[in-house]
Structures are given as structure tokens and as C-alpha cells.
Amino acid sequence: MTTPTNDRPSETVADRSFSPTLVILVLCVGSLCGALMQSLVIPIQSELPRLLGTDPSSASWAITATLLAAAVTMPVTGRLADMYGKKRVLVASAAVLVLGSVVAALSSALAPFLVGRVLQGVAMGYIPVAISLVRELAPADKAAGAVAAVSATLGVGGALGLPLSAWIADDFSWHALFWLSAVLALLILVLTAVVIPPVHDEHPARVDLVGVVGLAVGLSAALIGVSKGSEWGWSDASTVGSIVGGLLVLVAWAFYELRHDDPIVDLRTSARRPVLFTNLAAVLIGFGMMAQSIVLPQLLEAPEATGYGLGQTILQAGLWMAPAGLMMMLFAPVSSALINRVGARVTLSIGAAVVGAGYLVSLQLMDEPWRLMIGSLVGAAGVGVGYAAMPTLILDNVPEHEAGASVGVNALMRSVGTTVAGAVMAAILTSRTVDFGGHAIPSQSAFEACFLVGAGAAVVGALVALLVPRR
Which of the residues 326, 388, 394, 464 has an alpha carbon 20 to 30 A from that of 284? Predict the structure, then answer.
């Protein structure tokens, strides 16, 4: 098995006059902008049926479509980056983000709006490619920190997007959200094209179109069934058919990929024990991170008259959660130091354990917004540490010509975890309710159960991380 080396900058870099620090900064900001797309419409989700002239069920696709597009695109984009060069794919992803943002900004009906949101999801392929490229371009002594910083933007973007988008939606037109994202995307497009040095890292191969279609159909069907299960009903034929049909397509896709000379995802590489257990841990830690993002806003915004709700507005809830995003970024250097000292597998396990501790702290501090924020900060510190360690483990254990695709698969596994978390948390919150003014809202025990489930997933993730073999 060949593994990437750490004697960076890479010998494939054509221009050695570049500034590694500036390159790392551009890749971090680009990844942050891509991650912002996850939470951009959450503050206006309840208003979308009126704004787009549709029903609430259809409007909910504004979030689902982006997450699905990102999940499918990340491994595909990573593979294309390995084949055609990472810088080219980064520039193309930024261009897609510009296009998607403009389409969404100009939309006043559901169909074109969803097209824009899908394109924004596709552009999130920028993130795994940036992670794999920063490892090539950063000097050896900065490689772990650079990977940690870019990886942390996955959580930071989602956390900062809530208060930012709530403020813009409150004080300006909702279209301003997407014009802002278009301007940011255009800035990233220019910076990526100008600052990132030419890198000759292409590994030409045939595009596995059947593999791309199979992955897209299977993943989309399965994830739609999981994400819509609470809304459609878990025993409904649509839910069962979507999940089972998607899984059957993925099984057929796997058999095809194992027999293909240039698969879109090399399943033999993914089945290696270090990669397999890292990706399993990614599912569980992704579950832990998303559970916090779903549960905390609902608890913060629940009416005070319930006796346990904290009565915050959408903007206030976003502001209470924003420090968690900064905490993730602050702990990226901590993760880098831990990786260099005790190794990435132990660092990943520590991060997952801290995420679990954050839920237990939140369970004890539910009575005040500032106290609940302390629990979210603890959990965010764990996410910052764990998310930085995962791509390091992947890059240490895959051939260099599969770096982009392998990091993309790891990002996909995190997306699977977040999708499953959304379904599980929704099921818990809707199964334990109290009547408030004629409306059913989650009970205190429902929130407590969510915290315990999130802690359990994170602890299992910590144990799975320890199954990764020592190097």
C-alpha cells in the first residue's frame, strides 16, 4: 500500500513562489463559504411556503435538496479532482456556487429556487478537495494544522450561518441572503484562481458514468427516505420503498464498482481497516454534531411558559449558538498538536468523547440560555478536534492518487450521520409532546432523551475510533 508523504510542498507544484499561509487561508475561507450553504435557509424555513407560493412539505426540500446534493457530490468531486487536478475542480466548484446563489437570489417560485439550492449543494464538493490539496501544499510542520483548520470549517460554517442569515432575513430581503452568498462565492472563485498555485497532480482515468449515476440514485433514494420518514410516516410505503430501493441500488452499485477498472469510489481502499473504521466513526460523530444543531435551537426557542423552554427568538438562538462555531476553529490547533503528539486515531477518539461530554453537560444546564451555551461550547470543542483528525487518518492510509475521492467519501459518511441524526431527533421530538395553546410541542423529556442519544452516539464513535490500527 502506498501512502502520501509529508515532505510538502509537493514536487508537483509548478510555482514555488506561493505563500503557504495565504493558500491555507483561501482554502479555509472557501470551505467556510461552502459550509454556510447548509444553514442559510433555516431561519426563513417557516416563511418559505409564503415566499415561494407553495406548501410546507414542498418548501422543506429547500434544505433536503442541498444536503442530498452535497452528499452525492463530495465523493464524485473528490474523484474528479484526483483525475483532472484539484485546482481545476476547486475553481469549477466555486463557479457552481456563484451560479447556484444567483439562481436562488432571482427565484420567486419553488422550482428555480430548488435548482439554485441543488447547485449550492453541489458546490460543497469544494471542501473535501480543499482538505486533500492543503495537505499537498502545506509545509510538513504545518500540514496537520492546515488540514485541521480546513476541516473545522464544516462545523463553523453551519454554526455561523444561523445568526448571520437570521439577521439578514430580519433586516433585509430574504433574497439578500443569496446575493451575499453570490458575492462571497465570486470572491472565492477569484481568490482560488489567483492564489492557489498550479499543481500537476492529475491522474488521468476514465469517468465512471454508470458509477456516478448508481451512487446518485442509491444515495438519494435512501437518504430521502430517512430524512422524510418522520413526515411521511416510517411505515408508509413511500418511506419503506425509498429506503429499501435505495439500499438495493447501492448493493448493485457496489458489485459494479468492484469489477470496474476506474471506479468512482474504490471500495477496496474504503474497506481497509483504518479507512473503514475512520468512516464509521465519521457517521457517529456527524450524528453527534447534527443532533446538537437540531435540538439546541428548538429548546432555546420553546416558550418560557412551558417551564423548560427558554423563549428566545430565531436571531437570539442563532447568537447563542454562534460561539460554538468559533470554538471549533479555536480547537483546530489543539487537534493539530494532539495529532503530532498522540496520533490521529487517539485524537479522533478524544474529540468524540468530548462531544459526548458536551451533551451530558447540556443535560444539566438546560435552565438558562448562557448555561446551555456552555454545553454547546464543550460539544463544539470535541467536533473541532474530531473533524480535524478524520481527514488526517484518511490521507495517511490511502494512495495519493485516491486522496480527493477518499476524503470525499469520509465527508459523505459525515453527511450520512447528519441525515440519520435529523431523522432520529425528529422522531424523538415528535413522539414525546405536550399541548401548548392547541399545538403539540416537544416535552422536556424529549429534549433530555435527545441529549442522551447524542451522547451515546458520540461515545460509540470514540470507541470505534480506537479500532483504527496504530501506524
Answer: 326
